[in-house]
Amino acid sequence: MVERLSAHIVARSMTARGSLFALCALLALTRTLVRGDCPPDREEVTHNEAKLHKDLLCAYNTDFRPVKDHKQTVTVKVRFAIKYISFDALEETFTLHSWVAFNWRDELLSWRPEDYGNIDETQLESHEIWTPKMALFNADAAMYQSDQIYTTCLLTSNGTVTCVPHVAHSGICRTSLRSWPYDVQNCTLYFGSWMNTGEQVNFTFYAKQPVVKDDFQDGPGWKLMYVVNERLAGKYSCCPNSTYPMLKYTFVMKRIAAGPAAIVVVPSIVIVLLTLIALAMDAKDNTRLMLICFSLYGHFIFLTEIGYDIPKHSADTPIILLFLRDSMIVTLVGIIETIFLMFLRRRKLPAPNLIVTVNRLVANGPGKYVVFSEFDPSDDVDTKELTGQTSDITADKPSPTFDWIQFAHILNRLNLVVVVLVYIVLIGTYIPRDN
Ligand SMILES: *[C@@H]1O[C@H](CO)[C@@H](O)[C@H](O)[C@H]1NC(C)=O
Ligand SMILES: *[C@@H]1O[C@H](CO)[C@@H](O)[C@H](O)[C@H]1NC(C)=O
Ligand SMILES: *[C@@H]1O[C@H](CO)[C@@H](O)[C@H](O)[C@H]1NC(C)=O
Ligand SMILES: *[C@@H]1O[C@H](CO)[C@@H](O)[C@H](O)[C@H]1NC(C)=O
User: Fold this and answer.
1) What does the pLDDT read at residue 80?
2) Candidate from 72, 75, 247 with most ligand 3 atoms within 8 A of CB, to mutate
3) Roughly what angle, to the nearest 10 degrees, separates helices 286-309 and 266-280?
4) Within 6 Å (CB) of ligand 2, which residues are found?
5) Is there an atom of ligand 3 within 6 Å of 199 CB?
6) Distance (Å, rounded) from C-alpha 155 to C-alpha 106?
7) Of the residues 26, 29, 233, 362, which has the maximum number of CB atoms within 10 A of its CB?
8) Collapsing DSSP states into helix, strand and coil, what is residue 73?
9) What atom of ligand 1 comes closest to residue 105's alpha carbon?
10) Which listed ligand is nearest to 201 at the C-alpha?
11) Which parts of the chain span the membrane according to its record (predicted)?
12) Beta bridge partners of 222
């Protein structure tokens, strides 16, 4: 038919018009002839579905919203069938892999099934028709993410189009590491139309099941607890006649923390116990000093070790680090106290009255149940060695050094009580818990 038409044009132009027109027509003819290379038994398919496609798309323009009146809104329903999430806490990027179902009505793509052999649905490539461009507002711009969808769409005779592209969205997500390694992260993705107002393209959720979690798999190290979806109407005072709606999805994820818990939380309790045991010991020999110095060293080693594991970009400090810091200070104070007590115990000068009075008060009051110093035979030996006196002389009257030792005991117990209280407060506030 095309060939006949071209020949006709050539014939007419040869006779009637100038040579330029003839040249143009000749070009057109040549092109037809090249196309005509197809063997004659290969005829163009003309069944109902081919006819339907041809008729639907012959006057279609993919650039415009598919409405007959420009004031009409295209309502696009969105459903996320989420398949996989991954979260990089170091880079603060959250990636969601999902099948996103888009559903809208295209007024220009409807047909009467009776005219086409009762076909009432067909498939079209998404690039052949208008598709909504849903942008991720907090996208990680380092990764190229197109708003355009590329897939095959399903079209029904009343013009309803459904496209389900498989897409990955990467968004920026601030991490909060306060309760590391038992932290729960909220990552929110905001979707909407980049340039169209809500009066032109209105993104909404499917009424039923806006988020589907069938076949969902957790990414490495994180467990998805739940997803909250919310539609923000996007009304601003600047523009009373237009809205900029957004679809907001919040993903609440929990770190799978078995490993970090084993290497961080339990050892920090052990190290605290070490300090406490050291402080409960007598300051009379070097064992206590060695033990508590070892505990301080353990704090250093442990802090360095955690430094490798912990994500360092968080705006807030993980409280386990604050705990270790404070525990380190307590241990350091314990070392100073130990040295001071050792110094007290070696004093040979008679103790001032004040100290003797304090000793007597404690020994006679309820404090004697806490300070078991009077009946410690090794202290006695200590005392004798230090003072160089024989036991006959000191049997009835305590030596001046004994007063110092007893005073050191009282200080030590007092310190232990204070340290235990400090640790109870520290553990209560600073040890992260798995709730
Ligand atoms: C269009 O047809 C589909 C399936 O036949 C139906 O589910 C849908 O409700 C129809 N939509 C309208 C606007 O009539
Ligand atoms: C995380 O999101 C949930 C649901 O929107 C909210 O209840 C919770 O307070 C959020 N948590 C944080 C730390 O923002
Ligand atoms: C868009 O959809 C929402 C409900 O999903 C509706 O409340 C709102 O009025 C719609 N906006 C327009 C402009 O049609
Ligand atoms: C909003 O619409 C009203 C009524 O149609 C009109 O009077 C007003 O000028 C419009 N405002 C803007 C900012 O376009």
Assistant:
1) 96
2) 75
3) 160
4) 186, 228, 250, 252
5) yes
6) 9
7) 362
8) coil
9) 13
10) 3
11) 256-277, 289-308, 320-344, 414-431
12) 255
Nearest C-alpha neighbor of 276 from the set 369, 407, 415: 415
Query: What gap in Å lies between CA 203 and CA 193, rounded to an integer?
Result: 8
| Nearest CA owner, ligand 3 atom 1 | 202
Supply the DSSP string of 93-127, one letter for each residue: EEEEEEEEEEEEE-GGG---GGGGTT--EEEEEGG
Q: What is the pTM of this model?
A: 0.78
> Between 353-364 and 400-430, two packed helices, what is the crossing angle to 10 degrees?
60
Q: Of 189, 252, 253, which is best to mutate to test ligand 2, by the most ligand atoms within 8 angstroms of its C-beta?
A: 252
Task: Provide the phi-psi class of 215: left if phi over 0, else alpha when psi is between -120 and 50, else beta.
Answer: left
pLDDT at 3: 53
Predicted confidence at residue 27, as pLDDT, reads 52
For 224-262, give the DSSP string. Answer: EEEEEEEEE--B-TT-TT-B--EEEEEEEEEE--HHHII
Tell me the CA–centroid distance for residue 280 and ligand 2, in Å. Answer: 44
Average pLDDT per consecutive 10 residues, the chain (435 residues; last block may be shorter): 50 49 50 62 83 93 93 96 90 93 95 94 95 94 87 96 96 88 92 93 95 91 94 91 95 85 83 92 86 94 83 78 92 94 87 85 74 50 48 53 85 92 92 77
Q: How far apart are CA 232 and CA 236, in angstroms?
A: 11
For residue 315, give the nearest of 113, 176, 155, 169 by alpha carbon. 176
C-alpha 412/C-alpha 417 separation (Å) is 9
Find residue 84's DSSP bridge partners.
Answer: 97, 217
Ligand 4 centre from 241 Cα, in Å?
Answer: 6
Q: What is the DSSP letter of 316?
A: S
| Dihedral of the alpha carbons of 414, 416, 420, 423, in degrees to the nearest 10 | 110
What distance in angstroms lies between residue 122's CA and the mean position of ligand 1's atoms?
Answer: 14
Amino acid letter at 268? S
Q: Which residues pair with residue 255 across a beta bridge?
A: 222
CA of 314 to the centre of ligand 4 (A): 46
Task: Name the residue with the closest Cα to ligand 3, atom 3.
Answer: 204
